[in-house]
Design goal:
six-stranded antiparallel β-sheet; PmbA/TldD fold; 2 domains; 8 helices; alpha+beta
Length: about 425
Amino acid sequence: MQNIHLFAEYKKTELRVFDNLEKSEIKNLTEMGSAVRLNHGAHRQVIAISDLNPDSLYSASKHLVRGDPLPLFKHWEPKQEKAFEDDLTDEIDKWNHQMNHLALHFSPEIISTRAYWKSVKQHVWFFATEVGLREDIRPCFMLELEVLARQNKKTTKSSVTKSWISPKYVNQAELEKLVLYAAESALDKLHAKPFHSGAYSLVLGPLAAPGIFHEVVGHGLEADIAALTGAAFHNSKGERIGSDKLTIVDDPTSLGLPGSYNIDDEGITAKCTTLVEEGRISNYLSHLHSKVQSNGHGRVINYAHPPLVRMSNTFVLPGEDEPEEIILETKSGIYIKNAFNGDVNMITGEFKIHVTEGYLIENGKLTTPITPSILKGDGRKLLRSIDRVGNDFQIHAEVRGGCGKLGQSPLPVSAGSPTVRVLDWEVQAIES
């Protein structure tokens, strides 16, 4: 008989969108399904149904399996022991009212807020003869807050995200901090000025750096990508690629984040994997079909797809440098506060990142807010150009989007980083 894996999932997603104090969107989605995965060496086939019933899955797959798979199904019973309770209670109406009130009273230029509250609870089951039946429950409660500002005919927007295991971990002080961050950023963007494209020292803030490292390092160190001849990190284990201040990990065990899990979608126990240690490549992300042993990074967008090597929560670990001193030491450069919509050539490591919020650094001080720009270049060069790593680690959680790879998108992920300085980098201003 072929090597056979069984997989099933039950996922409940709740979404509430508030425009100011009004609910503009309400969604409650329940998805469920199960699959037989037939593994023939490098070839894999998935037979999926939108049902958790073992008899239905057996009937759908038995004619495609060599031999009799019935003994395997005797161990397969993905049961939902108790229904997931709703997370999006009336409590979020109160939180939303408080955030909106704080934002609108922060400045007359603040005109509105939009809050995306999202709860995802996923129950997965996996069975293979060699490991038996394994299951995992993955809860995550998330917020993305947008604040809009207007002056004359110019309108700007800034956003920030946060995630928790459940609503009971939300506190008022955290919400106020998110509002102040987004409101200040939106106001600063009203006064943004054009700047000249050119080479700058870059100070990547802790909410800008995570997405950049996700694109530049995370994808390049997925084992299936790195195995390709000509890939940026092909056969690079042990190679020095950056400053000894740079350590990068992928950690699915950090609870309450979109990319968190206890077992991956191939039944492997999750663990923190160090990708870069003190500037040297120490490992690749892998799954059961990699040429190296799996470290628990086989993930699927849903039950109907084959597992791919994927990131979970990718973090640049904090260093010892004070972020204020990093800026003070930068006589001329750009501070990048926020960036989004990263794109990377997974083979070569060439990337492009859109910078949405930034400031000129002049004589060690943040001065003029700048208009949007684009960072692009070679990922390996960027890693070699890092000379400072701050101690102000923060996490960005994907609330409305996620990571894409080979048609499986958006996969829930998060990324985190402290402030990082990159020397002598080309920045392209966007023409208005």
